[in-house]
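Dear H.,

Thanks for agreeing to be a second pair of eyes. The structure we're designing against is below in token form, covering all 374 positions.
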């Protein structure tokens, strides 16, 4: 555990002049609701209970906070110690939008024009309790995105290991049952409609990776549709890592003919100077296509649903009657988009997997793997 800041030797926690509950805000801030939903956080936040005096008590599940600072070492505690940004704990503060707005931190910019402080991040504080951006704090916490990915990984492992055990125990002659009956058609679909057409006789070598990509993205997509959960696949850091892994697999699968076609394309010499940079750019843009497509589609659906629900409270702020009158329309559209999002969860998992297979297939361009191609 890290050593305490000298200004906090009297105890583990220090209040900073703000009550534990949020002060009641005037009107409805749709921008805050949207960003709180799509951004990562150190807790699962479900709802706020408003007391008679106007203060709000957040209801959620705190998550472990793991911080490292060169001077103080490691600090490990639960995010509830921050009391949603209103308490300093062990010399650290979690910045929330209310505190930043009240202290003018949301308008501060660095010389490069970048924001000095970011909401949702943990900062070391000085003796006055003000965050210090000059002190580097390494945040290794189990945020809700990380926690949800671990849960998705555990579920994926449990499902696939269970199905493999059934195959090993019963063989392929016995009809599938239980969850095996639901998963087997999807495995067959990825094999017959994604792997074989794009990879030909080499499809068995890449099928385990393609199945892992498909099911891991699918499980995270479905988890993200649960109210109060994190939209992991709507986080560009997640899609970037997945795209980079696929990019490494693509590069490993290349051959001499592929690179010969890139650096010595079969075109007249004066055209090669133009075509070679274009071909190199085409290689680099492949992971970007995978990253942006999944990120944009999964984030957009969530924002649309939140915006539709937010319209109820926005109109309600103008007139209670208008708010209640618009509620059925807003809910109907939100449910419609939600149903579409369920389909998008499957479609985007398929598209990412299929594009990965297409790019891998292009990597052994020139080889004889017409088997399975249309």
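And this is the sequence the design step returned. I haven't edited it by hand at all.
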């Amino acid at each position: 555990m890290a050593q305490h800041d000298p200004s906090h030797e009297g105890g583990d926690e220090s209040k900073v002049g703000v009550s534990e509950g949020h002060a009641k805000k005037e009107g409805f801030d749709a921008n805050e609701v949207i960003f709180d939903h799509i951004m990562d956080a150190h807790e699962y936040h479900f709802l706020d209970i408003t007391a008679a005096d106007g203060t709000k008590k957040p209801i959620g599940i705190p998550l472990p906070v793991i911080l490292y600072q060169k001077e103080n070492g490691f600090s490990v505690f639960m995010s509830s110690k921050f009391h949603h940004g209103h308490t300093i704990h062990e010399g650290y503060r979690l910045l929330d939008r209310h505190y930043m707005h009240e202290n003018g931190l949301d308008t501060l910019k660095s010389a490069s024009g970048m924001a000095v402080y970011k909401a949702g991040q943990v900062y070391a504080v000085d003796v006055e309790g003000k965050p210090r951006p000059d002190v580097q704090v390494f945040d290794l916490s189990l945020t809700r995105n990380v926690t949800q990915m671990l849960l998705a990984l555990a579920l994926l492992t449990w499902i696939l290991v269970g199905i493999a055990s059934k195959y090993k125990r019963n063989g392929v002659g016995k009809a599938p049952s239980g969850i095996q009956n639901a998963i087997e058609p999807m495995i067959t679909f990825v094999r017959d409609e994604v792997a074989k057409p794009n990879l030909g006789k080499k499809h068995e070598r890449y099928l385990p990776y393609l199945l892992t990509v498909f099911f891991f993205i699918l499980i995270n997509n479905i988890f993200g549709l649960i109210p109060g959960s994190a939209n992991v696949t709507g986080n560009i850091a997640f899609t970037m890592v997945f795209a980079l892994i696929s990019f490494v697999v693509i590069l490993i699968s290349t051959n001499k003919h592929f690179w010969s076609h890139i650096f010595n394309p079969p075109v007249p010499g004066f055209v090669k100077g133009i075509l070679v940079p274009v071909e190199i750019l085409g290689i680099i843009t492949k992971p970007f296509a995978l990253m942006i497509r999944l990120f944009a589609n999964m984030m957009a659906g969530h924002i649309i649903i939140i915006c539709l629900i937010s319209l109820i409270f926005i109109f309600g702020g103008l007139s209670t009657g208008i708010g209640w009158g618009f509620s059925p329309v807003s809910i109907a559209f939100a449910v419609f988009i939600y149903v579409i999002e369920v389909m998008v969860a499957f479609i985007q998992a398929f598209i990412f997997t299929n594009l990965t297979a297409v790019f891998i297939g292009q990597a052994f361009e020139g080889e004889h793997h017409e088997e399975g191609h249309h």
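Two observations from my side: The first strand starts at residue 13 and ends at 15. Residues 6-139 form one domain.

Warmly,
E.
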